[in-house]
Design goal:
By secondary structure, this protein is mainly alpha-helical. It has helices spanning 6-12, 50-62, 67-70, 72-79, 97-101, 110-132, 140-165, 188-205, 220-233, 237-248, 313-316, 325-329, 380-393, 397-412, 427-441, 448-454, 458-462, 479-484, and strands spanning 21-23, 40-42, 85-88, 272-276, 308-311, 330-332, 351-353, 375-379.
């Protein structure tokens, strides 16, 4: 029987386990964004009191805007397969990103390994909280809330993993014995069930809102909305309908101005259900580490960025005539943005992602461009579109049209000459209309690739770029993880 080094297994499972020390970016109680790195804290000196629990929760959230969670790896795994995007930048810069766009990425690709490791690191943060906080003597209501928040974050990470890879190892506790380190892939049905269990638990405890000091923490609405999305991926339409209806009763509304919804001065607005909090903290560029906007920003200008993950010609052509979401989603070469930035008429790329854009005037030398830009994960418009899709699938065309029209009416912004209401009650035609609305409403928000796959249209939409049915519905598992597990982890078919 082959003996496997336990330290290697820590890496193989991507869990970042800290058996003797807990690596925390501790922060002051007011915000998990105000991070000052304290190095490492011995595990025997941690998990003692409420302040420790608070520090652990804040570190869990701070981890969400780390490189592998929000920058290159998510762009590769969650966006590059889409027809909405091209690689961007210059032809030779990070040319390996084209392998994701052309479905030639193999198991040795570093971005796949980074994405896998980043999500398991997130899961480890959550598992440490769930394993250790129950034993702490502290305010009971706050303890319950922290555990619910950890379950939401763990569910979010597993959602990202299962839709990217299918079956993945399901780890719900920090390993405490040698036999718990090297575990096989769990059938995705069981992973989905664990995600739903976490979200059900979280929704039963989390508050509907927080005081501003805790802005960005997971809420009841976030747990319900993510649960609805998880149910949608499994075609559990009755659950989607029930969950979205619950969210629709919690007081969210559509932000009036679509373009302004994504600007930094409108963070955590009435439409936002969950967004990853990012900030430029004066005199602290290390903590101001989000590169979500930087890697997608307009290339070649001060305050712009690297120019990756740019909108495609296919996306630009997908909008109905006059749809203002087109100009609110795409920065075109030669335009002047609503915030007054003049985009050069010549340059490396004809278009850039406007949803990740930060006005150039907000750039501060020494900091990542756009580091203050939040990443919206869940918003109310998607809840309405999930509600519309569920109603249609259950034969409730009238209710589906009502939710769909709310989204189109906001986009129409009072201009009755554009975006006429959808009126068809034919289930197939209405399904197509809802899918088209998701396409343009949520463009450049890292959902299109997975949407097309869950709809069963991968070969039809992506086939001209090499998509193969039965293979490219998921990405390959990182080969280094399979090797380090001594074959306990198995590869997806076709890779």
């Amino acid at each position: 029987m082959k003996t496997i080094n336990k330290n290697i297994l820590h890496r193989a499972l991507g869990i970042g386990l800290m058996a003797s020390v807990l690596l925390l970016q501790q922060s002051c109680k007011k915000s998990f964004l105000n991070v000052t790195n304290k190095g490492t804290v011995a595990a025997t000196q941690f998990w003692r009191n409420q302040d420790d629990a608070t520090s652990a929760v804040e570190a869990m959230y701070a981890n969400l805007h780390e490189w592998t969670n929000i920058a290159f790896a998510p762009i590769a795994v969650e966006s590059m397969g889409s027809d909405d995007v091209d690689k961007g930048s210059t032809p030779t810069d990070a040319a390996y990103m084209n392998d994701f766009h052309n479905f030639t990425a193999n198991s040795g690709e570093g971005q796949i390994s980074d994405f896998w490791g980043g999500e398991y690191k997130t899961i480890n943060f959550a598992n440490q909280i769930l394993d250790n906080v129950p034993a702490i003597s502290m305010d009971a209501a706050l303890k319950a809330r922290y555990l619910a928040e950890a379950k939401f974050i763990r569910a979010y990470a597993y959602f990202r993993l299962v839709r990217a890879f299918g079956d993945v190892p399901l780890r719900l506790h920090v390993p405490t014995a040698a036999s718990q380190y090297n575990i096989p892939r769990t059938p995705k049905a069981q992973v989905w069930a664990a995600i739903e269990s976490d979200l059900t638990d979280a929704a039963s405890v989390l508050p509907q809102s927080y005081a501003s000091v805790d802005a960005g923490h997971a809420t009841k609405g976030a747990a319900l909305a993510l649960h609805a999305k998880v149910a949608m991926y499994q075609q559990k339409w009755a659950d989607v309908l029930s969950l979205t209806t619950s969210v629709m009763g919690l007081g969210y509304s559509l932000f009036p101005n679509y373009e302004q919804m994504f600007r930094t001065n409108n963070k955590n607005n009435v439409e936002s259900i969950f967004e990853i909090q990012c900030a430029l903290l004066p005199n602290n560029p290390t903590a101001s580490n989000s590169q979500y906007s930087q890697v997608q920003g307009v290339r070649g200008v001060t305050g712009g960025g690297w120019g990756f993950n740019v909108p495609s010609a296919e996306l630009a052509a997908a909008y109905e005539p006059g749809d203002p979401r087109r100009d609110a989603t795409i920065i075109f070469r030669g335009e002047t943005t609503p915030e007054g930035d003049v985009i050069n008429a010549t340059g490396d790329n004809p278009m850039y992602n406007q949803k990740s854009y930060v006005p150039f005037s907000l750039y501060v030398p020494g900091f990542n461009e756009g580091c203050q830009q939040d990443k919206i994960v869940l918003r109310y418009a998607e809840v309405l579109l999930m509600n519309a899709e569920a109603n249609n699938e259950m034969g409730n065309a009238g209710a589906a049209l009502t939710s769909l029209e709310l989204v189109r009416a906001r986009a129409r912004a009072g201009n009755s000459s554009i975006l006429p209401p959808v009126t068809t009650i034919d289930q197939t035609a209405l399904r197509t209309a809802i899918w088209n609305e998701r396409h343009v409403e949520l463009a450049m928000e890292f959902d299109r690739y997975f949407d097309v796959i869950r709809q069963g249209r991968g070969a039809a939409v992506f086939g001209n770029r090499g998509f193969k049915a039965g293979k490219n519905e998921v990405w390959p598992l990182p080969q280094n993880e399979i090797d380090l597990s001594a074959g306990t982890l198995t590869q997806n078919p076709g890779y």
